[in-house]
Hints:
Shape: globular
CATH superfamily of the largest domain: nmb1532 protein domain like
Bound molecules: fe (ii) ion
CATH class of the largest domain: Mainly Alpha
Helix content: over 70%
Amino acid sequence: MTKLLVTKRDLMHVAATTLAPAVFAPAIITRTAFAEENKKEEKSDTAEEVTPPEDLMREHGVLDRVLLIYDTAIRRLSANEDFDPAVISDCAKLVQDFIENYHEKSEEDFLFPRFRKANQLTDLVATLLEQHQAGRNVTLNILKSAARVRGEAGAKHDCINAMHAFITMYRPHAAREDTVLFPKLRDIVSGHEFDAIGEEMEKREHQHFGEDGFEKAVAHVAELERKVGLYDLKQFTPKI
Ligand SMILES: [Fe+2]
Ligand SMILES: [Fe+2]
């Protein structure tokens, strides 16, 4: 509704100031103005689409929330406090399903080959790929030891070490992708290809998770945060 009013106002202004003397000018202006309006509509539709970097960055947000849970598990277990082993296992399974088998596969299938083809950031891409593989092994170690952290000192030690290794690698890994790799994507592909990558990624998301894959992952990690008292964001505000 607002857009239509603006269009009419624009139309009247242009007609009155520039082309009022011409007999058929209003019809011409009308077509031009509506064409402009259509362009604006198309633009705003496109703006609603999630771009590949935005998509991948918000998935990193899910990963970061898992890292917070791992951080807390390490701190509590190291202080000989209890921590629900099922939450650690569920985090590792969420990482396998959402990060390793989906998010990283998207990076490996849709982004990395394009950087190699463009001969850009190839060393970084090689390191990121190596870290994906290392991360998968670390997650397997977390899964192997998590269930026994309450009863076996060795398993607790292994689990803490594995979670620590995972956090140590993934914080700089994701930060490097967010600040160096993803912003560069627009420079190495055409606008059409950039949009096509977004569509391919969306298709993959639907194939893998059905509807609302991202929203489900966010809900899952929020539920895990609630179980271990990490959901309330206010607890992290410093008291100054
Ligand atoms: Fe990655
Ligand atoms: Fe990533």
